[in-house]
Protein: Peptidyl-prolyl cis-trans isomerase
Amino acid sequence: MKFVVYGFIFCAISLYGEIIAGVGMRVNGHAITLYEISALQKQLRISKQEAIDMLINERLKDDEIERFKISVDDFKVDEEISILAANANLTKEQLFAKVAKEGTSLQEYRTQIKKSLQARELMQRILASNISISSEEELLKYYSKHKKEFLIPKEVQVVRYLAQDEHLLQEAIASPKQNISGVQKFDESIILSSLTPQIAQVFIHTPNHEFTPVLTTGGNGFVSFYIKNRLGESLLPFEEAKPLVSQKIMMQKEQSIIADHFNKIRSSANITTLRE
Structure:
């Protein structure tokens, strides 16, 4: 009898301690703190429930990484960092300096890269036995139903935003009507046929009145383009569009398979709300 009473007291103390510590939920024993929920809300500008759902999925993903025994060694982390630096036209030292300037330590950055690689491997394993190659009929059906997605402009009118500091550029993108010191703006027209196919895709897939993703320039600067208007749109022929159609269908399938996978896991997970 004493054992039962002591056990009850211990559980009550543990629960009280978690509440004081700010633990809001537990997912299969893993804590989600109220601070995490609030911070994610502010960072992504999403609702509390959306933040909670994302954090629950993150804990479930960690469980799956452990279940699949997915490990990433230091060599793979270094290799990925080298690729990221090269893609940004930076040396590894310049990349580390940029990360440090953003308030992230080298160890924290390496941990983020490791988790990213583990997550990538997990998604590949989930998809490996579920994804199917699209048939010609499936490709044509998607193309016929979504022809607007394959309208290609000959020319795009843009405002080029150029800066040496990515933070300043992001600030200008967030407030495009303001003049931010250190950010230059240029009105110009771009003929898509003059661009490489890879760069042309950026302008094709960015809607009017939105910014392209931030790109690096040859001089270690950063650039983004505000799409004002498209001129001379024409429908990309099916044969030329097939690789793009296949990519779009594949992305839809992947998203559906991964969502179904985690929905099934979540339905049987032990999720406990301690404090709201």
Summary: The chain has ten helices and nine strands. The chain has a mean pLDDT of 85.
